[in-house]
């Protein structure tokens, strides 16, 4: 059995729509004696899409001897996995399942015949748009189990996008006020990213790093507000046995509830480690803060 490039072999039998095995029932239309075998008897591997496989006379004689068949066909038998041109309407439907709210126009697509199967496109296969919101979107046809046949399309995509923008520079480790951001709605290519879409997603949160004026804010750039911010005045509670001392200190680092931060005693300029006990409050054991 020798694989050949698929050419104009009109007599090829269609095989392997759902399997990688050529079985007895596949050859039976051209080799009736195969009907005597179990229909699922494997005879060889199904060719790849776009490739045919030829059972020559010598191959058929070996099969007849192997299975005890009385006769051998007087001609070669060609088999191929069915393939057909892609349907642009089905391509569009598969794309819309990924971006249901976008306007998608298919400008060009792969013309190579593809096997029958499930069309698959993912957000990861869509390249960021260049001029005129045009992009290349790669996908696949899943067929015969987990096999994937690569396909592509050149598309123009526009969607109504809502984004939260910084009106000015947003400093790290400082709560974002509502007046520092704005929501804008615009028509553009749907850039991938976990972008904030409402003020509620941003207001009161802390940027992990400085966000520049005019930038679109992503949710992963923000963290929940901390109880103590660097540079603010905090109440320090010192516990030493039964004694309790309280005074004000300057936080030299930022921390959430239960975290250790550095605090400076403004009177003695001594720095010490304290545990964040609440909003604007820290606590320390012993006389380290004196």
Description of the structure:
The protein is mainly beta and 290 residues long. The chain contains 3 helices and 20 strands. The protein has helices spanning 24-27, 57-67, 88-96; strands at residues 2-5, 13-14, 21-23, 42-45, 51-55, 77-80, 83-84, 102-109, 114-115, 118-126, 134-143, 147-166, 181-188, 206-207, 222-223, 233-240, 243-251, 260-264, 271-278, 281-285. The strands form 6 sheets. Strands 8, 10, 11, 12 and 13 form a 5-stranded antiparallel sheet that branches. The chain has a 5-stranded mixed beta barrel with strand order 16-17-18-19-20. The longest helix is centred in the N-terminal third of the chain and has 11 residues, at 57-67. The radius of gyration is 35 Å and the shape is elongated.
Describe this protein with a few key phrases.
single chain, 290 residues, mainly beta, five-stranded antiparallel sheet, five-stranded mixed β-barrel, 3 helices, 8% helix, elongated, disordered N terminus
Number of helices: 3
Please trace the helix and strand order, writing H or E for each element.
EEEHEEHEEHEEEEEEEEEEEEE
Cα radius of gyration in angstroms: 35 Å
Percent of residues in beta strands? 35-45%
Q: Which bin fits the share of residues in helices?
A: under 10%
- Strand segment tally: 20
Q: Note poorly predicted spans.
A: 1-10
Largest sheet: 5 strands, antiparallel
């Amino acid at each position: 059995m020798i694989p050949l490039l698929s050419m104009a072999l009109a007599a090829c039998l269609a095989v392997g729509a759902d399997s990688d095995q050529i079985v007895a029932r596949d050859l039976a239309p051209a080799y009736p004696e195969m009907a005597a075998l179990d229909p699922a008897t494997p005879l060889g591997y199904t060719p790849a899409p776009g490739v045919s496989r030829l059972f020559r006379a010598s191959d058929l004689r070996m099969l007849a001897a192997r299975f005890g068949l009385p006769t051998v066909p007087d001609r070669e038998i060609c088999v191929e996995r069915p393939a057909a041109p892609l349907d642009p309407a089905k391509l569009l439907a598969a794309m819309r399942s990924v971006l249901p709210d976008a306007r998608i126009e298919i400008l060009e697509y792969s013309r190579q015949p593809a096997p029958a199967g499930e069309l698959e496109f993912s957000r990861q296969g869509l390249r960021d748009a260049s001029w005129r919101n045009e992009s290349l979107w790669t996908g696949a046809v899943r067929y015969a189990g987990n096999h994937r046949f690569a396909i592509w399309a050149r598309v123009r995509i526009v969607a109504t996008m809502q984004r939260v923008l910084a009106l000015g520079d947003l400093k790290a480790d400082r709560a974002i006020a509502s007046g520092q951001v704005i929501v804008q709605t615009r028509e553009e290519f749907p850039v991938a990213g976990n972008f904030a879409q409402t003020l509620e997603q941003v207001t009161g949160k802390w940027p992990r790093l400085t966000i520049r004026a005019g930038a679109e804010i992503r949710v992963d750039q923000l963290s929940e507000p901390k109880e103590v911010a660097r540079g603010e005045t905090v109440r320090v509670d010192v516990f030493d046995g039964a004694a309790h001392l309280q005074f004000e200190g300057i936080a030299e680092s930022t921390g959430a509830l239960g975290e250790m931060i550095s605090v400076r005693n403004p009177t003695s300029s001594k720095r010490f480690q304290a545990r964040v006990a609440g909003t604007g409050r820290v606590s320390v054991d012993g006389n380290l803060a004196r």
